[in-house]
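Recall the central idea of this unit: under ordinary conditions, the amino acid sequence of a chain determines the structure it adopts. In this exercise we apply that idea directly, starting from the sequence alone.
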Amino acid sequence: MQAHDQTTDPLARERGHLAASRSALRAMRADAEALDIRDVTANWVNAAVLERQIGERVKSLADLAHTPLFFGRLDYLHAPGADQAEGAGGEQFYIGRRHVHDADGDPMVIDWRAPVSQPFYRASKKDPMDIALRRRFGYTGGDLTAYEDEHLSDPAEDERASKLLQREIERPRVGPMRDIVATIQPEQDEIVRGGLSGSVCVQGGPGTGKTAVGLHRVAYLLYAHRERLARTGTLVIGPNASFLHYIEQVLPALGELEVKQATVDDLVAHVEVRGTDDSAAALVKGDARMARVLRAAVRSHVTLPAEPVVVVRGSRRWRIPAYELEEIVSELLARDIRYGAARDALPQRIAHAVLVRMEQAGEAPDDRVQDAVARNAAVKAAVKAIWPPVDPAKLVLRLLSDAEFLAAHAEGVLSEDEQKAILWTKPARSVKSAKWSAADAVLIDEATDLVSRTHSLGHVVLDEAQDLSPMQYRAVGRRCTTGSATVLGDLAQGTTPWATRSWAEALGHLGKADAVVEELTAGFRVPREVIAYASRLLPDIAPGLTEVASVRESPGSLAVRRATKRGAPAPDAADLDAACLEACAESLRQEGSIGLIAADARIPALAKALTAAGITYLSPGEETTPDTRLTLVPASLAKGLEYDYVVLDEPAAVVDGEPDERTGLRRLYVALTRAVSGLIVVHSAPLPPQLA
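Accordingly, the structure predicted from this sequence is:
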């Protein structure tokens, strides 16, 4: 492997290609802006759709000043697809975030997702994949300043780690999450390029890049299956709004603007959430058995008919006896279709029975007659009595308010204690006045799906999945029943009382039991010293889980400090605050973002101390600026976020802030693994014994 600095002539040629590529991209954008659609649209609706598509195309062709158009080059030994035996000459391809072509349509930059780009991520000395040379480029800002060559088919050259690749991985993280398109590793690329038809679950410890892999997988699928996914839609689901804000620029940087983002709470927002559950109630409400209770409660509204239906048409009366109506109703129940769909089918079934009698009497009714009979007042009255409409929110309200109604449908499913745990002590009078919890909203979503089918998307990415309850998994699964899913998470970072115990169980609730489970164990973000320190917790929080092996060795990246004044018998709160501020000031002397992570209960005191010291700070999700690089992070919101330097305040308080020790230690594991370059742990109370 050869590295080259900015004084070499080849570098000047590569800069020339970069300048020419930028010029070509500007021309592509100008062509898109100049498109005249007046002669190709038949009406204003088509014109509006086409205009929106052109607008999105123009946006996707933006030349971002600090985002290199290409980051690599591949020199093939032979032209891809050519017969190698014939000795056809090789070709050269520049690999970048998007496709760029010149005025003649010849490619100047190849999209990283194209098949011809794959060897950039997969080729090695052992398997060169017909690559003579792989070149990586180094940038400072938007300027090309260096390159590095690997002659993969040259047996005389040894395989060595890429310094430019390492530098890109370790580049300071200021602002929102960025793409990893220049640094995707072979095991990550294999997941990214998986087919659309299959679902995949990625178990990855801190710093293994699972979130980035999931986002790049969406970008790849949109490239490979654009027409299909344009029809069916894609969705990225994250744990909270702060996390979504942090990742929201990744896909647009790759030219993908149509992917929607949401939290699970957003998906199930049928009612306003104003209440909270204690852990006992939340555990029961999140249990998959609640789906059986809800199904029984919905179907209980169906009443088998006791009276015949008599339809009067002109001078004739057509009678459908109760036993025949009962057969129709029983058949619809046995088909187990949605409650609302069956209710819609019932009047047509009754009308069909009437038409059979008409035909037997010598009449020749057609479809219009059947529709008219289905709308007959007697038929409507029968349907209302037999199969009344169900309001999902009112149904859940009754289950949580009416002990007898709940007992009738939870018998043999929930114990008496479990039923008591979810019953409201003060029943609400109406859907609007009820103080619904987040778990209640998921129950309403389940009931809504039992009444009418939820719309399914083509592909869903579910991040931080380990914290979902079985009922939340079902809610997500409903959004991809006819599509596929990419599930991302880390069992060791589950911090809810209902945290996922195994991926097999979780995928079953999601409806994707056949999903392939992949494990990422190579860490690229967290320094080796830091991840080793945090991994001391693994035997207690996730026995049997593989420890992340970080590729980043960074001596001095971990410091653990006791906050006491010299000679003092015991520390006090002022000592802890002062030690945290000192650690923050020290970290701010470094380049990059700083996260001060603390137990939620400690946040007000630290905010006050920072303000008094004149140190400006942000809340999670707010974008860092050159003047304000410190974010004050409650431990409950730290998951999924990352900072160049982290100051962790009082680990014992993080553990004590959770309802049980295992959850507390998992929360601490999350907090310990947010650092990219350095971690300072400040404590006054004794450290948890696992870390001591």
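The two ends are 43 Å apart (CA to CA).
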